[in-house]
Every structure is written in C-alpha cells, then in structure tokens.
C-alpha cells in the first residue's frame, strides 16, 4: 500500500497548461495518479509533464483543443495507448472574454460557449464512452469532474457569457450524472471562487479588482489549495455513492 488516495488511477485533465489545471495535475500526481495533461500550449504541458516525471510521478503531455472533437479523441487515444483508459476526467479548460454585454463581439461569445460549454460536453462524453467500454458498470470507478464557477449563481458586469456557460455546466453535470448513474460513472461539479490565476490577468491588482476583494465577507481571494480535498475526494473511491452534486468552494465570496 502506498497510502496515496489516487494510486492506480489514470486522470485526464484539460486546460492543464496553467492555473487550476496545472495545479490539479501536480495534486493528482502527488496522490499517486498517472496524469494525462492536455492543452493547446503543448510546450507548457510538456514542461509540466517533465517536472512531474522528474519528481517520481507519472505524466503524459498531449495536444488538446477542447473546441475540436477530433483533438479530444486523439488525446484520449494517446492516453489509452500510453497509460490505459482514463477513469478520471477533469473538464477544466475555460476562457473568458471580458466586457459589457453590449460591447462583446459575437465572435467572443462563440469562443466562450465553444470552450466552456461545448468543450466540457465533448470532453466528458468522450471520457464516458471510454469508461463504459472499459467496464465502468462493473468497476464503478468512473469519475467525471466538471469545473464550474461561483459566477453561475451571481450577477456582475463584465462576464455575462462566462457566467451563463458555468451555470450550464452545473446543469450539464446533473444531466450526465442521471444518464450514466447505472453505468458506474459519477459526475460532480466544483464551483471555485475567485482565485489569482492566469485567466484573471492583473485584474486583482487594479483599483477595481481591489474594490471587488474588499466587498467580499473575508476580503481575500480563494486559495487554490482549498480545492484540493474536494478534487481528490471526487476522483477517489470514497465518492462512489455521490453523483450529480455541485460544491461551492469560495471562502464565502458569493454570500
């Protein structure tokens, strides 16, 4: 026994070139999982895979554009050939095109929807197809984790399309959970609060960003490590009887 909670698990993580995705890759590798880390910025995921492998973990970098179904299929093919069928899929890739609703171009809206909703749908679906074919109904080890956002139940200026897609992701998780509940696949959604990552840029260093932080009950950003325990729990055997759930981890920002 290694004592690691994700030993013998294989996890595929999208959007792993930076931010939450890169953090989840290190977290899962540290808990014993073999990780398949995908993103469009292949140089970054390769560097991360090299780091994990050098540290004694097991990681495979793959090119992955979640807006392209062929790219998703190719990534799963590569994962299966090198490590085996992923039994944990983390649909994390996301983008935001900031601006008031009256100003954001149609192209920007489509970009957000294609990545944050369609990309999540296609990633989870391909993962489920592979898990079912590999016998998830018997093993009950299939895990799909969707990364949402507290903006799914908030209103604000500047991220209407992003927030709407994250609410859609929350409901998509319940839809998938119901469809796959007898096939040994659990589907759950984690809704993080505001964290200082690349997607936020330098917003929280501006006067507007500082004012936003000051408006929250605890007047601070969520620490990325606050996501660690629910992320490991939802990927592990411990969550076998939990599906269709969504959990908010935001240090009270949305209260």
TrEMBL record:
GO molecular function, one term: oxidoreductase activity
CDD domains assigned to the protein according to its UniProt record, in alphabetical order: SDR_c (cd05233)
Keywords annotated in UniProt: Oxidoreductase
InterPro entries referenced in this protein's UniProt entry, alphabetically: NAD(P)-bd_dom_sf (IPR036291), Sc_DH/Rdtase_CS (IPR020904), SDR_fam (IPR002347)
Cited Pfam families: adh_short
Similarity annotation: Belongs to the short-chain dehydrogenases/reductases (SDR) family.
PANTHER family named in the record: 5-KETO-D-GLUCONATE 5-REDUCTASE (PTHR43669), ALCOHOL DEHYDROGENASE, PUTATIVE (AFU_ORTHOLOGUE AFUA_3G03445)-RELATED (PTHR43669:SF3)
Protein name per Swiss-Prot or TrEMBL: Short-chain dehydrogenase/reductase
UniProt source species: Novosphingobium sediminis
């Amino acid at each position: 026994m290694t004592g690691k909670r994700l030993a013998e698990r294989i996890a595929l993580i999208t959007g792993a070139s930076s931010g939450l995705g890169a953090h989840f890759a290190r977290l899962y590798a540290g808990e014993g999982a073999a990780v398949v880390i995908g993103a469009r910025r292949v140089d970054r995921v390769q560097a991360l895979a090299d780091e994990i492998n050098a540290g004694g973990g097991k990681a495979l970098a793959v090119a992955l554009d979640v807006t392209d179904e062929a790219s998703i299929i190719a990534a799963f093919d590569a994962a299966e050939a090198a490590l085996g069928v992923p039994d944990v899929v983390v649909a994390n890739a996301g983008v935001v095109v900031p601006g008031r609703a009256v100003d954001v171009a149609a192209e920007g809206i489509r970009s957000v929807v294609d990545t944050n909703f369609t990309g999540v749908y296609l990633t989870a679906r391909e993962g489920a197809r592979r898990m079912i074919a590999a016998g998830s109904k018997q093993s009950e080890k299939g895990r799909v984790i969707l990364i949402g956002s507290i903006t799914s139940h908030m209103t604000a200026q500047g991220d209407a399309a992003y927030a709407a897609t994250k609410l859609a992701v929350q409901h998509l998780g319940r839809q998938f959970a119901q469809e796959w509940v007898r096939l040994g696949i659990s589907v759950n959604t984690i809704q993080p609060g505001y964290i200082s990552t690349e997607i936020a840029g330098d917003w929280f260093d501006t006067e507007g960003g500082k004012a936003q932080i000051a408006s929250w009950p605890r007047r601070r950003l969520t620490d990325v490590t606050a996501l660690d325990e629910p992320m490991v729990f939802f990927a592990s055997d411990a969550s076998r009887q939990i599906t269709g759930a969504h959990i908010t981890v935001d240090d009270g920002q949305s209260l």
